[in-house]
């Protein structure tokens, strides 16, 4: 079968991402029917004979002016086909895998609406007649002659176009982006499982970084966004119904509010995000920033979390708590909650011979204790299974790792210099082995969003 033949050559999703990123740095021009070959007279003539109505005299003259200047001609689907046909300049051709953008979408066996896009770099995004490659963190690389974006291979934001669907290219292999031993949704429709499997790893990584219970985050995303299908989620990437503006961007629409006796329809402005990733990060930041949500910080009991989030005024619906609990239990969302050996926060059950144990005194903070032992609060929080380093209790036992009995402060991070085309997801995938750990990098560097720039030096957890 054609698919098996291509797979045997190890054309992979990660390889496709690397390939289009390299193409992004090359001199390219959009040519209908182009497959990343050097612009020459014979190449232009061949394409013009194949698509005479598109190759107008003006376009032909434009392409001829590029001969000898190391330009490569490529169209949107040609960028993808050129990868699994052997790369830039390859003259390999396989009729059975020669598909148009729409033909590739029809041939795909794994695909879905764009609002269920999995966070897997290398999946393709599609709209009628056009296709691009999703590289993660809300970014797409595509070949286009749209004057808004440029001419040839360019990088755009997922939100820049009205993509309607995602698909896995049927001619390449997709590596599992989630840890092999990580949780996966087993309950619900296929679309519901796709949604949970996309949000779950992000919520899990966010819990590790911020202490906000992952099951609560996933349940709220489901309830507030209608499984990612609400207008607010599809047009503003707002999964949690948070009002206001985000970096100056807002989205105004009608919503239902409880007035104490009945639901009424009101018009409100909600935050508009570049992607779901920013929406999730802003959600946990809200809980850690506003004092009324302090009971949620480091909490491990999902029923209490669902109660506290309602009592703190997050929603007006009197049935909000029960709805969240039902979602968590029906879809087994606690599978994404990080389980700590010492989830009660009362101290370690046993002490290793090489450890020092410190008893928390009145006025202590984890940072103060860490400084006294020549380490950092991040090290102590991780070593003791403390989800929220801001919460410790008088009398609590804090284990001090071997070797930290005083002296210089331990360094708990390395540095990474951002390169062109990098994203937080891609850096986490490369440096930490899991793209879903990007919130750890975001938090360690005090970033409020996901915007980074080439040359920026980031701290990476070790």
From TrEMBL:
Keyword Hydrolase: yes
GO biological process: defense response to bacterium; killing of cells of another organism
Highest taxon listed in the record's lineage: Bacteria
Keywords annotated in UniProt: Antimicrobial, Bacteriolytic enzyme, Hydrolase, Signal
Domain LysM: 356-400, 414-460
UniProt keyword Signal, yes or no: yes
Protein name: Peptidoglycan hydrolase
Native source species: Geosporobacter subterraneus DSM 17957
């Amino acid at each position: 079968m054609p698919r098996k033949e291509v797979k045997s050559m190890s054309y992979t999703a990660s390889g496709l991402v690397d390939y289009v990123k390299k193409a992004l740095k090359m001199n390219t021009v959009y040519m209908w029917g182009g497959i990343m070959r050097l612009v020459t007279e014979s190449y232009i003539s061949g394409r013009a004979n194949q698509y005479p109505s598109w190759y107008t005299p003006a376009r032909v003259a434009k392409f001829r002016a590029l001969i000898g200047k190391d330009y490569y001609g490529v169209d949107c689907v040609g960028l993808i086909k050129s990868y699994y046909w052997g790369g830039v300049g390859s003259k390999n051709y396989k009729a059975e895998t020669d598909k148009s953008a729409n033909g590739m979408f029809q041939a795909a066996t794994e695909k879905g609406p764009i609002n269920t896009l999995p966070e897997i770099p290398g999946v393709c995004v599609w709209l009628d007649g056009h296709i691009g490659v999703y590289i993660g963190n809300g970014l797409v690389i595509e070949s286009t002659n749209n004057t808004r974006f440029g001419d040839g291979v360019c990088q755009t934001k997922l939100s820049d176009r009205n993509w309607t669907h995602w698909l896995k290219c049927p001619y390449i292999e997709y590596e599992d982006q989630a840890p092999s031993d990580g949780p996966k949704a087993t309950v619900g429709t296929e679309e519901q499982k796709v949604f949970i499997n996309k949000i779950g790893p992000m919520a899990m990584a966010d819990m590790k970084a911020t202490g906000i219970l992952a099951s609560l985050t996933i349940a709220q995303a489901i309830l507030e966004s209608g499984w990612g299908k609400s207008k607010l989620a599809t047009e503003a990437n707002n999964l949690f119904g948070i009002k206001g503006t985000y970096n100056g961007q807002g989205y105004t629409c009608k919503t239902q509010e409880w007035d104490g006796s009945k639901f009424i329809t009101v018009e409100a402005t909600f935050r508009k995000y570049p992607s779901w990733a920013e929406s999730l990060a802003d959600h946990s930041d809200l809980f850690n920033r506003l004092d009324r949500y302090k009971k949620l910080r480091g909490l491990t009991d999902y029923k209490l979390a669902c109660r506290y989030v309602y009592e703190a005024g997050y929603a007006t619906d009197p049935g909000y708590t029960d709805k969240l609990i039902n979602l968590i239990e029906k879809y087994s969302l606690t599978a994404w909650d990080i389980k700590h050996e010492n989830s009660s926060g009362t101290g370690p059950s046993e002490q290793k011979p090489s450890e020092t144990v410190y008893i928390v005194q009145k006025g202590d903070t984890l940072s103060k204790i860490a400084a006294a032992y020549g380490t950092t609060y991040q090290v102590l929080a991780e070593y003791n299974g403390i989800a929220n380093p801001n919460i410790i209790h008088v009398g609590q036992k804090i284990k001090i790792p071997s070797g930290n009995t005083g002296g210089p402060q331990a360094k708990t991070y390395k540095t990474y210099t951002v390169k062109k085309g990098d994203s937080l997801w891609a850096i986490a995938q490369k440096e930490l082995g899991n793209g879903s750990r990007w919130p750890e990098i975001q938090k360690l560097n005090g970033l409020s969003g996901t915007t980074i720039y080439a040359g920026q030096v980031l701290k990476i957890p070790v």
